[in-house]
Amino acid sequence: MGAAWRGVRDQFRRAGIDTAELDARLFAEAAFGMDRLELVNREREAVPQHQLSILDDYAARRLKGEPVVRILGEKEFWGLSFKLNAATLVPRPETEMLVERGLEVIGPLNDARVLDLGTGTGCIPISLLTEYSDVTAVAVDLSVDALEIARLNANRHGVGDRFTTLKGSWFDPLDPGQRFDLITSNPPYIESADIETLMPEVREHDPRLALDGGSDGLDAYRAIAAEAGHFLKPEGVLLLEMGTGQGQAVHDLLVGAGFGEVEIVRDYGGHDRMAVARLRTAP
Ligand SMILES: C[S@@+](CC[C@H](N)C(=O)[O-])C[C@H]1O[C@@H](n2cnc3c(N)ncnc32)[C@H](O)[C@@H]1O
């Protein structure tokens, strides 16, 4: 087993992959169905041919530039493993800010209702649901394939009975009378013209529907800001993730749509990352 994964590591090193050893070990663990310790303990054993073929396939994909998480088909977020498919964005660590703030909002409430727009893997609402057992969530996406994975992730993490998926654009699939305590969204926010300049790992492997925010990157914010007020309870909170430098524009859109209190929160890198908006200003 050792010779097999080290062979892959050496191929990766020759190809200039910085994380050659880590990537090769992760692929071997997945291909051989072992954890790290077992891989070390069974170092001298021969590998069955079908497992070697899986390892070779992973290695070939990596050498063509596919990210490790895409090849393995899962990514950790909020300490939970989320399955991915071609229709889902790989969850990013900065999105955990929405979960942190969301928990502060719903923590003091009973039976809180959450709506997540553009749910992808479902990472935001599923993380919230795993923390409080009386919360229910509705997750919307335009992609049926993304919703299928979100459903699978919810079931895997034991919250499927409190998680509803709806296909459609932003608020379209919701009944007009529905009201939520918390609305979250990490919508597509890249300016269309900038997509070609993104790193190949993102440009070629994250779905365009998850990235493209229109000519100024703000299409989704305009659509969400215009309607969110109709779907929030009076004291409800809207949390929106955004791209670097979009804080002022998103702030102005939300104020223009009638939100009385809008805070722009920066991430650890000091970049605008999240809008926290309330219809009413806090007393
Ligand atoms: C940036 S990704 C975020 C995915 C996930 N929430 C996360 O944080 O990892 C944006 C998501 O919005 C979805 N989307 C794009 N346009 C949409 C629309 N008009 N209505 C609903 N969902 C949309 C995409 O399919 C994608 O899943």
Could you give the distance between the termini? 64 Å
Average pLDDT across residues? 96
Assembly state here?
Answer: single chain
Which structural class do the helices and strands define? alpha/beta
Q: Helical proportion?
A: 40-55%
Bound molecules: S-adenosylmethionine
Number of domains: 2
Largest sheet: 7 strands, mixed
Outline: elongated
CATH topology of the largest domain: Rossmann fold
How would you name the CATH homologous superfamily of the largest domain?
Answer: Vaccinia Virus protein VP39
Rg value: 21 Å
Largest sheet, spatial ordering of strands = 5-4-3-6-7-9-8
How many β strands by DSSP? 9
By DSSP (H or I, 4+ residues per run), the number of helices equals 12
Uncertain spans: none
CATH architecture level-2 label of the largest domain:
3-Layer(aba) Sandwich
Please report the first level of CATH classification, the CATH class of the largest domain: Alpha Beta
How much strand? Answer: 15-25%
H/E topology pattern: HHHHHEEHEHEHEEHHHEHEE
Give the structure's gist in a few sentences.
The strands form 2 sheets. Strands 5-4-3-6-7-9-8 form a 7-stranded mixed β-sheet, with helices on both faces. The protein is of the alpha/beta class and 283 residues long.
Describe the structure.
With 283 residues, the chain is an alpha/beta fold. It has two domains: 2-72, Helicase, Ruva Protein, domain 3, CATH 1.10.8.10; 75-278, 3-Layer(aba) Sandwich (Rossmann fold), CATH 3.40.50. The chain is 41% helix and 19% strand. The chain contains twelve helices and nine strands. It has helices at 2-14, 20-32, 36-41, 49-63, 68-72, 96-106, 123-131, 144-156, 200-203, 208-211, 219-231, 247-256, and strands spanning 74-77, 80-83, 113-117, 136-141, 163-167, 180-185, 232-241, 261-266, 272-278. A seven-stranded mixed β-sheet has the order 5-4-3-6-7-9-8, sandwiched between helices. A two-stranded antiparallel ribbon has the order 1-2. Helix 1 (2-14) runs parallel beside helix 4 (49-63) and helix 2 (20-32) runs antiparallel to helix 4 (49-63). The longest helix has 15 residues, at 49-63. The protein starts with a helix and ends in a 5-residue tail after the last strand. 39% of the residues are buried. The mean pLDDT is 96. The structure holds S-adenosylmethionine (SAM). S-adenosylmethionine binds at residues 89, 91, 95, 117-121, 123-124, 140-143, 146, 169-170, 186-188, 209-210. S-adenosylmethionine binds next to helix 7, strand 4 and helix 10.
